[in-house]
Specification:
Largest sheet: 3 strands, antiparallel
Order of helices and strands: EEEHHH
Family: Belongs to the FlgM family.
Number of domains: 2
Oligomer: single chain
Strand content: 15-25%
Biased composition (Gly residues): 1-10
Biased composition (Low complexity): 35-46
Region (Disordered): 1-46
Distance between the termini: 54 Å
Organism: Sandaracinobacter neustonicus
Structural class: alpha+beta
Length: 99
């Protein structure tokens, strides 16, 4: 069911109102002048595209570092400082802590 709704203030004068399962939804695509314009979204799309290209150009994981850690663990050279880890965990739980 589609009704025409008249509005005032910032509400467009005519909007398609769709009723479905007892819930109303305004069909903004049918409202003249309220749909996002491609020119307004262009800068955001360009930034997103640039970020996506940058991310896809580099591997998501530093493979050399992973291999280095694997070797150190396998050879028994990887040292774990339990006190530093415990201190960092406690600091992270304190109010106002950023890490």
């Amino acid at each position: 069911m589609v009704d025409q709704v008249s509005g005032g203030g910032n509400i467009p004068s005519r909007a398609a109102l769709q009723l479905s399962s007892g819930k109303a939804r305004v069909d903004t695509a049918s409202i003249s002048g309220t749909a996002p314009r491609a020119a307004e979204n262009a800068p955001a799309k360009a930034q997103i595209s640039a970020a996506a290209r940058e991310m896809s150009a580099s591997p998501p994981v530093d493979s050399a570092k992973v291999q280095s850690l694997r070797s150190a663990i396998a050879e028994g050279r990887y040292q774990i400082d339990a006190d530093s880890i415990a201190s960092a965990m406690i600091r992270s739980e304190l109010p106002g802590s950023t890490a």
